């Protein structure tokens, strides 16, 4: 059966590559997003708060001062062990704003936790558009979870131990075997898959606002999972609405089909990429 998406796509099919004509490509950019807009459900349940977890930190995947850290952990539950992601956010107001104001960790947590509450409500975790979110982990006195760390040389949780206000965390599904979108892996099909997932996110009344290759995970089978909702806005934020969804959709289309794919073709021809986003995704 042909879905509404397929019908829509066949009308707005992207041009064939390679081509260097930016103008020609701009003309083929879809005017609209294939969004099925259903008015938002009021009173979306908040994320559950998790108590008494047993976690071991294995690796710190990323740390941003005053903001958040992303840890790869093992979670022991009902006698079983599984990988998970623990994203821990500072709650203190940032002291050091050198280099411009940063979004405080607490604000990033608010945005990301609201986005995941929406995703659970609208079935995006169930459908694998985004990771599962198991819930919120609090740290009063760090006694809610048993935090062990496997690294001998470094206290990976160190940057949080001296905060005035206890940090707060989200426990997320670890997307095993998936890696950030790489320029040379991008194809038209993969680009279309990424766009589909972005539309699902918009249908959950969330504007991602940071749809960069590093926040798009791709599996060997071409599966696409979107992560990192730290910059996102959810209803009733006025930017979590169809005009802004459409702008984000068109921006993503442009990024994938006008900026990145022609750069991939250039590289395959032995030329230099033109766009900085392509260089970052090498
Ligand atoms: N659920 C996940 N499964 C696997 N890897 C992840 C997951 N979440 C984050 N990562 C890895 O950690 C990196 C940083 O996570 P992200 O949520 O993007 O943090 P930040 O907001 O600091 O950019 C990602 O680019 C990805 O490589
Ligand atoms: Mg990120």
From TrEMBL:
Native source organism of the sequence: Rickenella mellea
Name of the protein: Protein kinase domain-containing protein
Top-level taxon in the UniProt lineage: Eukaryota
Protein kinase domain span: 59-282
GO molecular function terms listed in the Swiss-Prot or TrEMBL record: ATP binding; protein kinase activity
InterPro entries: Kinase-like_dom_sf, Prot_kinase_dom
Signal sequence coordinates: none
